């Protein structure tokens, strides 16, 4: 089922174009990585999806409908800047914001207890927000985002400022949300996070689509014709290899166009060299972005 | 449950539980109560000092000024010569002395001698000397009662009549303006606190992007309407506490302090009009604050911009001195119809005279129109600028945005 469908979206602020002819969709049960550098148009796109602002042209449908109160109740949104009512306790804040999503107070408290326990914050349930650390506040805000079991979760830079332990907790929870059949839009400029979590990727720059599609398919499309190898001893010259690059403990072998990785593996085996590592080189999203944005890719 | 009500409940409870709200609400009645108590305590414990008798010497060169030497707390003592009076002054037996020269009846001039450095003779001393001289000059000409009447202060009883010639139910009296004046000041304070609270709240939510979380759950209209209503209700609660405590405190003060306090009146329609003008005034200031909150990049900037209209509401209080002396000037009609000054000026006018129904209707009508139009524009401005962070838009930019919206 399509959770969000965006067609030919345009948005300008005065003379500056923030979003330019953007089209994409996200299905339930998948995580879409909305990636791009700062100022690429990610936040503007999210604000249009959430109906905070109207596009200049284009169409947005959420679960096949225009935004309305019932749809809002099915959305969980975590903004980039994290702010909360500082004088409220964690539980009062969670219950209040959950009630605005149509959730019953008793149910909200029960669910809050479960999520607070899951994140190791149950003991801080009655602590005022102003007494919490930044990381604790972010976890509370994440709980607020998902407490009402939203079908669409929009996370804008969810890991910024989080310590590794809390980052891992949040990653696991995001993965579980996807597995439960929810749609997640993960907006970030940290591409390694997207590689870990996302099924589909929309890369934008200057408001326009740079790359869009299945993450595995994209990586396969942009894979290099090379292999990463770590062997005992000196590799020496291997037929079919046109260049060698040291790469932090391993060596990247750049292959001739008609040489496959299997041929190289066979040749290494024939030499009787113990092989610690052998893998086909796949570029990171960051490398792909730099490649495309730099105009190196044809 | 309705989301508007949920936000209303949250904002109302959040507001009335805040320390600043509790202090501002209770501090006025508590201070008044304390003042009455302290006055009562002091007046009970400390006896009034015995009235000091002042003695003025005089040298009568004519020889007929012998009566009316007892002028209340002042006695006039005759001396045979200037030298005798001078010695008594230097010994502090008298505080000063006068000489009534032989040619007084033709020149009207009296000489006064004192040890004090004075630019002008104190009015009380002048009155005493005048009464002494008048009483003696008239003693053989008119009956004693007439002399007493002449030297007594004028007791003027003023009665206001209506245009129909009947005696007005409410009589103009400086005491009548005391309660409306104090209430007007409190109303200004309440508007100012409400405005500050709304702008700070919106500023904090905007700065922390919490506003985005709220918008992902509710509409702009729901959020703004519930915020305004919640803060308005909290403000109304505050004003009700003041209004209810005013007659009680007045009653207590009258029985405890007596004097002019017992002559203070509260206009008949004061309570009803006070509540109506509070609600209308509060709503007007709230919609202005929404617009200001939306275009300001932070709470501090919003607070500075809001001074433009919060200070304007004090104009009737700044002009209250002129108002008391010239209560029928057309300026007060203009100020009681102009929306920003209307609540305060109307309250002040209630203490002085009846306000014609057409002026009340025009005043309330214009306030209602301003609120409706203001809310319409404020929501539009809010929609355009609330999610823009950083630079504050200029007036031209805002007008262009409103045209496009």
Please explain how this structure is put together.
The complex is a heterodimer of chains A (298) and B (405). Chain A is α/β, with parallel strands linked by helices. Chain A has two domains: 2-220, P-loop containing nucleotide triphosphate hydrolases (Rossmann fold), CATH 3.40.50; 224-281, Alpha-Beta Plaits, CATH 3.30.70. Helix content of chain A is 33%, strand content 30%. Chain A has helices at 42-49, 69-72, 90-99, 105-118, 134-146, 164-179, 191-197, 215-221, 261-270, 285-293, and strands at 2-13, 16-27, 31-35, 57-62, 75-78, 152-156, 183-188, 200-205, 208-214, 226-231, 241-247, 250-255, 275-280. In chain A, the strands form three sheets. Chain A has a six-stranded mixed sheet, sandwiched between helices. In chain A, helix 3 packs across helix 4 and helix 3 packs parallel to helix 5 (134-146). Chain A is globular. The two termini of chain A are 34 Å apart. Chain B has 405 residues and is mainly α. Chain B has two domains: 54-151, D-Maltodextrin-Binding Protein, domain 2; 173-404, no CATH class. In chain B, 64% of the residues lie in helices and 6% in strands. Chain B contains 17 helices and five strands. Chain B has helices at residues 3-16, 19-45, 82-90, 104-107, 123-138, 144-151, 178-207, 210-215, 220-257, 270-295, 299-312, 315-318, 320-325, 330-337, 342-350, 357-385, 395-404; strands spanning 54-60, 70-71, 74-79, 96-100, 111-114. A five-stranded mixed sheet of chain B has the order 2-3-1-4-5. In chain B, strand 2 and strand 3 form a beta hairpin. In chain B, helix 10 packs antiparallel against helix 15 (342-350). The model of chain B has no long low-confidence stretch (mean pLDDT 83). Chain A binds chain B through residues 47, 50, 52-53, 69, 72-73, 75-77, 79-85, 87-88, 96-97, 99-101, 141, 144, and chain B through 1, 3, 6-7, 10, 14, 204-205, 207-210, 212-219, 383, 387.
């Amino acid at each position: 089922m399509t959770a969000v469908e965006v067609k030919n979206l345009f948005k300008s602020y005065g003379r500056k174009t923030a979003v330019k002819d953007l089209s994409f969709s996200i299905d339930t049960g998948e995580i879409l990585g909305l990636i791009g550098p700062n100022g690429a148009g990610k936040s503007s796109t999210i604000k249009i999806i959430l109906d905070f602002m109207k596009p200049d042209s284009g169409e947005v449908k959420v679960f096949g409908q225009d935004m309305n109160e019932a749809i809002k109740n099915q959305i969980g949104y975590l903004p980039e800047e994290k702010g909360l009512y500082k004088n409220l306790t964690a539980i009062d804040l969670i219950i209040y914001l959950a009630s605005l999503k149509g959730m019953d107070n008793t149910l909200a408290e029960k669910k809050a207890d479960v999520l607070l326990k899951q994140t190791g914050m149950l003991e801080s349930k009655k602590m005022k927000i102003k007494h919490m650390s930044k990381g604790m506040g972010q976890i509370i805000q994440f709980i607020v985002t998902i407490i009402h079991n939203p079908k669409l979760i929009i996370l804008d830079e969810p890991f910024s400022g989080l310590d590794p332990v809390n980052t891992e907790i949040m990653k696991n929870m995001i993965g579980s949300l996807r597995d439960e059949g929810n749609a997640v839009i993960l907006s970030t400029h940290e591409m390694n996070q997207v590689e870990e979590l996302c099924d589909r990727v929309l890369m934008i720059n200057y408001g326009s689509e740079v790359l869009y599609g299945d993450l595995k398919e994209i990586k396969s499309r942009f894979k290099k014709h090379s292999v990463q190898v770590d062997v005992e001893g000196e590799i020496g010259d291997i037929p079919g290899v046109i260049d060698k690059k040291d790469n932090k403990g391993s060596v990247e072998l750049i292959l001739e166009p008609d040489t496959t990785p299997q041929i190289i593996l066979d040749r290494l085996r024939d030499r009787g060299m113990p092989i610690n590592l052998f893998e086909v080189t796949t570029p990171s999203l960051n490398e792909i972005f730099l490649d495309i944005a730099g105009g190196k890719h044809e | 449950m309705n989301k508007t009500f949920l936000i209303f409940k949250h904002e109302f409870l959040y507001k009335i539980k805040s320390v600043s709200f509790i202090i501002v609400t209770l501090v006025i009645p508590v201070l008044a109560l304390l003042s009455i108590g302290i006055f009562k305590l002091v007046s009970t414990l400390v006896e009034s000092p015995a009235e000091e008798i002042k003695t003025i010497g005089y040298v009568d060169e004519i020889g007929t000024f012998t009566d009316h030497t007892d002028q209340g707390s002042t006695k006039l003592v005759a001396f045979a010569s200037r030298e005798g009076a001078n010695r008594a002054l230097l010994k502090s037996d008298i505080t000063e002395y006068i000489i009534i020269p032989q040619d007084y009846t033709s020149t009207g001039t009296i000489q006064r001698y004192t040890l004090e450095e004075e630019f002008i003779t104190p009015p009380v001393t002048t009155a005493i000397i005048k009464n002494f001289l008048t009483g003696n000059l008239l003693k053989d000409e008119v009956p004693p009662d007439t002399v007493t009447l002449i030297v007594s202060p004028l007791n003027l009883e003023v009665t206001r009549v209506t245009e129909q010639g009947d005696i007005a139910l409410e009589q103009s009296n400086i005491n009548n303006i005391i309660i409306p004046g104090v209430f007007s000041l409190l109303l200004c304070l309440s508007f100012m606190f409400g405005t500050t609270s709304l702008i700070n709240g919106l500023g904090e939510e905007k700065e922390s992007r919490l506003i985005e979380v709220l918008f992902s759950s509710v509409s702009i209209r729901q959020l703004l309407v519930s915020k305004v209503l919640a803060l308005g209700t909290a403000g109304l609660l505050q004003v009700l506490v003041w209004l209810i405590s005013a007659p009680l405190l007045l009653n207590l003060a009258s029985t405890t302090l007596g004097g002019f306090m017992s002559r203070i009146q509260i206009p008949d329609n004061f309570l009803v009009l006070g509540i109506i003008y509070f609600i209308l005034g509060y709503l007007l200031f709230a919609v202005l604050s929404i617009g200001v909150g939306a275009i300001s990049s932070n709470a501090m900037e919003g607070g500075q911009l809001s001074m433009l209209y919060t200070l304007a509401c004090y104009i009737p209080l700044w002009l209250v001195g002129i108002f008391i002396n010239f209560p029928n000037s057309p300026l007060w009609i203009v100020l009681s119809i102009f929306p920003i000054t209307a609540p305060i000026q109307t309250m002040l006018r209630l203490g002085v005279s009846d306000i014609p129904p057409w002026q009340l209707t025009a005043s309330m009508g214009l306030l209602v129109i301003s609120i409706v139009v203001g809310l319409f524009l404020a929501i539009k401005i809010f929609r355009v600028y609330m999610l823009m962070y950083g630079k504050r838009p200029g007036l031209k930019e805002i007008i262009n945005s409103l045209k496009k919206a």
